[in-house]
Amino acid sequence: MKKIIYTLFLMVSTYCFALREVDGVLYRQYVNSRFGFSLEYPAEIFFMQPPPDNNDGRKFLSGDEETSMMIYGTYILLPTSSKIDDSNLLKNVENNYYYTLYNDYGNANVTYKVLKESKGLYIISGILNDKIFYKRVQLVENSEPYYMVFKIEYPIIDKNIYNKIVETVVKSIKN
Description:
Blueprint: H1 2-17, E1 19-22, E2 25-31, E3 38-42, E4 46-48, E5 57-62, E6 68-75, H2 86-104, E7 109-116, E8 121-128, E9 131-140, E10 146-155, H3 159-172
Antiparallel strand pairs: 1-2, 2-3, 4-5, 5-6, 6-10, 7-8, 8-9, 9-10
C-alpha cells in the first residue's frame, strides 16, 4: 500500500511541476482544482501568487510586477426565472461581451475584438494606460456553467517579449 501511495505521489509531483520549453522559455502547468481548467505559464518570468480563499483561479506577476496575468472561473448568474439552456447561456456571453467592451474598456484603444457567440467565446485586446491588455472569456458548459477568464496586461515597451508568450499561453489553455 505504501508503494502505491508513493508511486502516486511521484506521478502527481512530476505532473504538477513538469516543465516544457517553447522558444527558449520554460513553461510550467497550472491546474485549477475547483474548476478543472489549466494553462502553461512562463515559470522564469511569472511568479504564481497565493490562491484566493475561494480557489477560483490564480494571479501571476512578473518579477518587477509591471506585468500581471490572471486566469479564473466565475459562475454565470442568470435570473432565477431563466432556465439554463444553450440560448440563455449564449445570450449571456453576448451581453457580457458588450458590457466588458463598453464598461471595462470604454476608454481603451481597442485594437482587436471578436465575439464568437456560437462558441461562447470573446476576446478583447488593446491599449489602456500605457499597457497592452488581452482578455479572453470562454463559456464552459457543464452541470454548473461558468466563464473561464484569462487576462494579461504588460507595458507597451515589452510587446516584443510578451506577444509570443501570450500566444503560447492561450494555446495551452484547457477546460
